[in-house]
Amino acid sequence: MLVYTLRRLLQAIPSLFFLALLSFFLIHIVPGGPAQSLLGQHSTPARIAAINRSLGLNKPLYVQFGIWLWHLVHGNFGYSYTFDQPVLQVIGTYLPHTLELVSVAIVLAHLLAVFLGTVQGYYQGRWFDHVITTITFFLWSMPVFWLGVLFVMIFAVDLGWFPSGGISSPNGPGGFGSFIMHATLPITVLVLSTVASWARFMRSSLMDAMVQDYVRTARSKGLSEFMVLFKHALKNSLLPIITLFGLSIPGLFGGALVIELIFNYPGIGLLTWNAAFQRDYPIILATVMIVGVLTVLGNLLADLLYGLVDPRITYR
Amino acid sequence: MAVQPSTTIVPEEVPDSSLGTSRAVHLFFRNPMAWVGIIGIVLIVLFSFVGPLFYHVSPLATNVTDLLAPPSAHHLLGTDDLGRDYLSRMMYGGRLSLIVGFSAAIASMIIGVTYGLISGLVGGWLDNFLMRVIDILLSIPTLFLLLFLDVTFQPSPLELIFVLAITSWFGVTRLVRSEVLSIKQRDYVEASRAFGANNFHIMIKELLPNVMGTVMVATTFQIAGAIITIATLSFLGLGLPPPEPNWGTMLSDSMSYMYENTWWLIYPPGIALLWTVLSINFISEALRGAIDSRF
């Protein structure tokens, strides 16, 4: 398993290199560089040239790429033009906010999906199944941003229960209370937008498991329905969900990006968004690389977890 | 059993198509979900494409004396912040959203299916190479890439179709390839080969008809996905450029007036989007039911 993990990590290197190459050149072939957006209306050709020289943007592109990559493999993401801080420091303040949202959402969405899917799959065709199937079908078809807008409309504008955005209020509670106030709506939207497909998956997975021989065997041993469901059927039907966990990471970050923009939540999505408009190349490249690494790790995690819960699988 | 890296799709046994197809069609049309979906799509297409033929109001004509007017006999869905008729904008907005969504989905299916057929049929080092390319492409965070491309290039609708298509075909390729891997072992493919058929002939005559079920279901997913993506991008202020309306941009514009209780601006584009995606998903669900129950 260690060898397998190492080999997969090695295989990830060309993927990440290609990602770095692609994003770097895409960014730099675009007209209108950072000098333009830094100077704004004060830009003159001479000033632009001076800034380009100081940022190293006047060198040939492949040299710039080489320098950037060399720094990157040494853990140096460069220096943000707009924040006037090392990129890592900027990301260090923004990324935790996104991780808070995404991790809480992942845990809640999984718990909810497993619960709903299991009950639905077990009581297949009953009223509970029909109600939840209908709700998840609606949620599944719902664009994330529309759900976000609805939540802002209903819970922030109309009812006034939560602030419509941001991460802190001047006269609101501090600390954890503030987190609850500001993160509840974004997290709820994130959970609702992911729980639908996972619950549908869980339902069909449990329905598959319930007709397997080992469930019949368990029943004929005289085990209680509770034991049959939880010890035999549920355990096996969790397999695909575990794989989904790793594979859903890029999607969750994409969803978080949209949600951060709607709720003006200062996470990595909002950071990338602003950086893209201000042509803050080091920030854009860093966030793309981070999400790329998380995606690769998510895929690996999916395969490793799969083997962990299913002893029939061996790693080569 | 070795782990298949990040693929959990197990190719199902695909039955011979001759008998199965008519049964699947029959099953599909017997499913009420199929009809709900078809009627839903027909209605939204009629609304967007035929509606303007009867409702002769320009979606672009501004009127400063009628800003943010609520629905009335004069403007059935009220007006927006520039006094433009909202119902007309909804109709024309639907056109653009639907055309771009469908075209992008079809384009991505063509790329994905062709790539999957070739990779699966030819096999060997080429298959290996092509699949490694897919692995690399899959590690690219699509939304971040789209965001970036849009900010920098500000694409026209045609370019947007292209961008959406080239960022969304990988999943289809994997599905098609894994099916081809099982189909190409069948006797009828062997027989065809023994009669001297070349790869191209086998691809078109033997493989394509047999992956058609999967392809159709995948197409519905792609269409729904493309419509959502295009709306999301436009909502974020990227994607389709103004002043031509589209549902995503209309929704984001309406957010500026959220505190002024302009419900007629916020709900229609969102409901229209949900309606469209819901209809497509109903069809998708019915298709899956029809194809799966063949065995």
Keywords:
heterodimer; A: 316 residues; MetI-like fold; 14 helices; 77% helix; 0% strand; globular; B: 295 residues; mainly alpha; 71% helix; disordered N terminus
- Find the CATH superfamily of the domain at 96-265 in chain A: MetI-like
CATH fold-level topology of the domain at 96-265 in chain A: MetI-like fold
Give the structural class of chain A.
mainly alpha
Helix and strand string of chain B, N-terminal first?
HHHHHHHHHHH
Shape, per Cα inertia axes of chain A: globular
User: What's the helix-strand series of chain A?
Assistant: HHHHHHHHHHHHHH
As a whole number of angstroms, the C-alpha radius of gyration of chain A is 24 Å
Low-confidence stretches of chain B are 1-15
What is the number of strand segments of chain A?
A: 0
First-to-last CA distance of chain B: 25 Å
Pair with the most extensive interface?
A-B, 60 and 43 residues
Sheet with the most strands of chain A?
none
The total strand number of chain B stands at 0
Task: Provide the number of structural domains of chain B.
Answer: 1
How many helix segments of chain A? 14
**Share in helix of chain B:** over 70%
> Overall pLDDT of chain B, averaged?
78
Q: Quote the beta fraction of chain B.
A: under 5%
Pfam family, one (chain B): BPD_transp_1
Protein name (chain B): Peptide ABC transporter permease
Organism (chain B): Sulfobacillus benefaciens
Domain ABC transmembrane type-1 (chain B): 94-284
What's the structural blueprint in terms of helices and strands?
The complex is a heterodimer of chains A (316) and B (295).
Chain A (H helix, E strand, L loop, with lengths): L1 H27 L5 H6 L5 H11 L5 H13 L13 H36 L4 H15 L2 H15 L16 H36 L2 H8 L4 H13 L1 H9 L1 H14 L5 H11 L2 H29 L7
Helix pairs in contact in A: 1-14, 5-6, 5-8, 5-12, 5-14, 6-8, 7-8, 7-12, 8-10, 8-12, 9-10, 11-14, 12-13, 13-14
Chain B lengths: L16 H14 L1 H23 L31 H37 L1 H15 L3 H12 L3 H10 L3 H14 L3 H8 L4 H37 L11 H8 L8 H30 L3
